[in-house]
Design brief:
mainly alpha; single chain; 5 helices
């Protein structure tokens, strides 16, 4: 578990930094600790998308994390990387290389 900071979120969501919803996004994401994990394997980005569902829980299929546990688009319960490049950036913000054990 980790607590996100404003500094991390300003890097993570740099593309949203100047948008009016950015302060509330940060507040929400810093409100509680988060469970951070790295999943890897062939097709992992797409498989995790399928498990999570679309950003808006109203558009998500039953049985997905966002449909079953999300409240609305800003409170959708889970973040997932949308590309390998984004995953690499986000992993670097939350984990050190020493924290990875690979077989």
């Amino acid at each position: 578990m980790v607590r996100l900071t404003r500094e991390i979120l300003e890097i993570w969501y740099a593309h949203h930094k100047d948008k009016p919803f950015f302060p509330s996004l940060c507040e929400q994401m810093m409100a509680t600790p988060v469970v951070a994990m790295v999943l890897e394997g062939e097709g992992a980005i797409q498989k995790v998308f399928e498990i999570c569902g679309p950003t808006d829980p109203a558009e998500a299929a039953p049985g997905t994390i966002r449909k079953d546990f999300g409240v609305d688009k800003p409170h959708n319960v889970v973040h997932r990387s949308d590309s390998a490049e984004a995953a690499e950036k986000e992993i670097g913000l939350l984990f050190t290389k020493e924290e990875f054990l690979r077989s």
